[in-house]
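Hi R.,

Here's the chain you asked about this morning:
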Amino acid sequence: MATKFAQFLTDNKIDPRRILSVSKRIEHLQAEDRKLKFAKKQKKGEGAAAPAEGEKLAKPRSGRPVTPRLIDAASAGKPVAGPAKTRLLRAVNHILEQKKKPAVDLKAVF
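And the predicted structure, written out as tokens:
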């Protein structure tokens, strides 16, 4: 019996190797991500007061792409952490977008 994730991949003809390459490209740290992390570290180190409500920094990319082990675990129905599911979903949605299909939500895949 296939899991919901494995069935979704076969129904939409998505190759797991393509998920790996897309995720690596999406999650790769860019210069702006490093700047955001550095700014957050500087604010933390100064001991300054918490930033005002309107001063939220943008969230940087994780820098951690999807791995073959994660895809195997998701396909086999093993427990997968929330951030890992989100990374998988981002990669799958990117592939679906390239195939001119609508993006899906987390409940449709997991």
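Helices lie at 4-11, 16-27, 31-46, 68-76, 82-98, 106-109.

Let me know if you need anything else.
M.
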